[in-house]
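Supplementary Methods, section 5.1.

A reviewer requested that the exact input to the structure prediction be made available. We therefore reproduce it here, unchanged from the version used in the analyses.
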Amino acid sequence: MSSPPAARTPRPPRPSLRLRPRLPPRLPLLVLRATATALAVLAVVQTMLAASFLNGHYDSLKAHELAAMALDTLVLVQLVAAALVGLVARRGPGGTRGPFRPLGTAALLAVAAGAQTAFGYDRAVGLHVTLGVLLVSALLFALVGAWRLPLPASGGAPAAPQGAAAGRLPRPSGSMEVAQ
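The structure derived from this sequence is encoded token-by-token as follows.
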């Protein structure tokens, strides 16, 4: 005769292979803001170094080149942060994602910064100066745009809109009296 089957002990659940570490919802936007601020400061430093070179201080050209390399690197970091803002940072209750406008802005800034560096090394001074003015302006506008994005709540839910809708003033309700 055969013996009865031994009782099986339940196995502990295996960890899922799809586990991914969750990124804190505020982190990508904070990195985006930090990179936008650092890029704006670097852009102003670049203009001062270029002006110093044009005034005859030829040693400032090497510092201008080093600052350009730092700016190019930081633009790529901002590109990654902007992608994370769009994908991760602001998941709402309906699975909505954050805005993708910062990603487009960061991509254009990366292309412009690369072209600016190429024009500088090619000594195309007319194009380099013109694109430099446009790039500094774009970096300052990107700085304002990064700081205008609402910071997500720490729990991952989007920040509560202020007023009737996010970014708008509430409409007056009721009758309004005009003082004479």
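The CA atoms of residues 72 and 142 lie 15 Å apart. These observations are discussed further in the main text.
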